[in-house]
Amino acid sequence: MHVVQIVDSLRVGGAERLQVTLARALEHYPTRLTIIVLSDQDRSHPAFVSELKDTGAPIHFLPGFTLLAPGRFWRLLRLVRKLKPDILHTHLTTSNILGSMVGRLLGIPVITTLHNTAFASKNDRQIRVRLETLALRHGAQKVLAVGPIVADAHRERLSNQEIVTIPNAVPLIDPLPDAERDALRQSITGDAVKPLLFSAGRLSEQKGYSVLVDAIAQLREKHPDAVVAIAGQGELREELEQQITAKGVGSNILLLGVRDDIPKLAAASDLFVSSSLWEGLPVAVLEAMSAGLPIVATRVGDVPRVVVEGTGLLVEPGDPTALAGALDTMLSDADFRASCARNAREFVRREHNTDDWIARLLALYENTSKSGRALSTLEI
Q1: pLDDT value at 373 more than 80
Q2: Which domains can be identified in the chain, with CATH numbers?
Q3: Between residues 7 and 160, which one has the greater pLDDT?
């Protein structure tokens, strides 16, 4: 079987990280994988590109200035026709729209994936959501959600169309040797013994980092040495830098930018914090748990289904005081922190391992392929 994955970008993000997870998992199966990225290689995470190339999966970059740029669409159509895949599997809004159109035209079954429960409120984004809704209803053979809450969030707009749920998965992250762990912490904070909190994600409205800045401004009264290291880049960086300066927490919050050592950063940290205002089933949280980190996160999307009792603490989104309180509780109790760390790693190993995930995904590919090719509206 030949599967073509189409994704909006290879920047920092859960959908992008899953491309690497899938490519590595498929190294042990006869299934062929090709990846099409609808953005420039220069805007891609170098580590993602490198890891994908290591697996031998071909990568094609097809950037476009606008969603429906004719040049990109026809290049995508010709490329998919040349590749002759058995399945098109699309991720994120632009890919879901264009991939569904191409699949419909060429008669190739399409599986589209929903990664989030909500969308940004900008008007141009809302237009994309409406176009995506049409694509999911009329161009996709299967709609896949990364968690049950994500599926529930989209049922109304899909007119109760069937949504298959396959929760995200991550490989376990090995602990770092003590010397390497201390050296990495030292390089980040200047002091290996300072409490190190870690977060990873795009610097965007969704991730709620402005709330985290306010929470750290409160937390530093009890934990003045605590440092939050945030790995990621995005449109809100300048705004966050200004807020960090205004709150006087420049020594407590470090914006690391794009990093190629996320697993090591997780393994070197004391806990993971997610301040998101909305989510699906965030891969960053699962990765942190797989590294044996206790979690402090907001109660959004499918996060409560993974940050279960004994693995961390949950607070309501948009509440910096509650977030600061949960972080204080975690930092003040080393035994509780250690217990949550063990439980978190075990939960991911048991419930979100890549072996079960890839088996379910391959079964979905096989069943969708066997159900028949889509009705082609274009003879080429």
Answers
A1: no
A2: 2-169+354-370 (3.40.50.2000), 178-351 (3.40.50.2000)
A3: 7
